[in-house]
Prior knowledge:
- The structure holds 2 protein chains of 2 kinds.
- Chain A is an alpha+beta fold.
- Chain A has helices at residues 28-34, 81-84, 88-91, 116-127; strands spanning 7-8, 13-18, 21-26, 37-41, 48-49, 54-60, 64-68, 73-78, 100-104.
- A 6-stranded antiparallel β-sheet of chain A has the order 1-2-3-9-8-5. In chain A, strands 4-6-7 form a 3-stranded antiparallel β-sheet.
- In chain A, strand 1 (7-8) and strand 2 form a beta hairpin.
- Chain A is globular and about 35 Å long.
- Chain B is globular.
- In chain B, 50% of the residues are buried.
- The model of chain B is unreliable at 1-6 (pLDDT under 50).
- Chain A binds chain B through residues 28-29, 32, 35-36, 38-39, 41, 57, 59, 61-62, 64, 83-84, 87, 90, 127, and chain B through 1-2, 26, 37-38, 41-44, 236, 240, 302, 304-305, 327-328, 357.
Amino acid sequence: MSPQELKYTKDHEWIQAQGADFKVGVTDFAQSQLGDVVFVELPEVGRQLVQGEPFGVVESVKSVSDLYAPIGGTVRSVNQELLTHPERVNEAPFGDGWMITLSPANVDDIGELLDAEAYDALLAKEQNH
Amino acid sequence: MTEERTGASEGQRTPLYDAHLALGGRIVDFHGWLMPVQYRSILEEHRAVRQTAGLFDVSHMGEVEVKGPSAGRFLEGLLTQNVQDLTPGRARYALMLDAQAGVVDDLVVYARASDDFLLIVNASRAPEDLAWITDKANSVAGVSVKDVGPTLALLALQGPRAAEILDRLTQGQASSIRRFRFAQLRVGGVDAVVSRTGYTGEDGFELMCQAEAARQLWDVLLREGRPDGLLPCGLGARDTLRLEAALPLHGQEIGPDLSPLAAGLDRFVKLDKADFIGRGALLNEQAAGVPRRVVGLAFEGHVGVPRTGQSVVDERGQEIGKVTSGAISPTLGHPIALAVVPANYAAPGVFVGVMIRGKMAAAEVVPLPFYKRGA
């Protein structure tokens, strides 16, 4: 069961309200699919993102995946620990493996995201094909 | 997460396929074979081989028997190495070339008797190798060629603890097998040909047995080695391990357009022996000067992951070569790559650029191997 207090995208990112900002990462399913994460490329603080825009890259031993902005906004902070410890994404995808925080451009963007139940239903479908 | 994950479903299975599923192996298609790329984690498996031991199923590799009174001489006409000087129980790494000195495959030849040889070849090349060898043998009397791959399984037990683990199962006989030698041993009730060979840069063994006995051998080895930290390991770790050891992979460092001299495999090429296919082209290449070479590249810092096919560029950003293999080295903690570059760039200390996802990353040519056991 995915954490109830988060919202999700169909690309397996999660988003969490942090005061006025939002914290973003990838889900447990995503890290499991990726395998050992060996490199994470994150945007610069201050970069403006549009909802759905690629904002970075997560590389595992065998693959490269783009990260997509769940909502539009301005990058407020970036998890520097991932530069030296990319494995945090595997170890704690909802915790220490967080990637960026965003100051939202339009809070209505959140309404388009999946809640935990809808995300889990999506996962169930994906794992049964 | 579900325990069973099948990313691929169409393909050939080794005798250990069910074992891989039972262990939570992530199955991928590897040149038509359904193989585990990892069980829990490529990095964890890689570290196990470097620190304790790992067990690989490499039954997808090909095995070709070449027998007969002329077998030795025939093989010397096909391979870059001598073969007739191998006493029974000795093995040797060699390359099989075409007339342009392109590499048909790299392989290990096992001398079982003066008229009885076994070649172990890459899984990705097994059908081509069999066709090549059979074709060349057609016009030669006293040589028979037989594909024995389907009847055999091959396991690799690699790592600093491999010898202790295997010794416990063989009353100490395993450790007395020297490097590139092999012997028939009984391991956990299974008859196996055990060779002191491997593709990881660690000490280790490869064990060949009848397909029907493979699961028993696999289970016995895993059970015996668990207390030592033995882990089952997939093809992902196999690749990162061999890269750190700078061992070539057909299709990347060697291949139809990549000669053994360019790949730095000169010491496995005996130009002074009797003629073999490709010898003439090699002599020409040597005389003209080998134009390109495979080098090792090391990167500082956090620049991304070097990967096969990325461009290698000079200081002006002009492409001068390509990355043949790359990864972030689990042992060294920084990115490494093998790349083919013009000969004048092939000296330690030279700097080149590598285009990693559109951005140039600085890399230094370094001596090989990246990792050496015991260093």
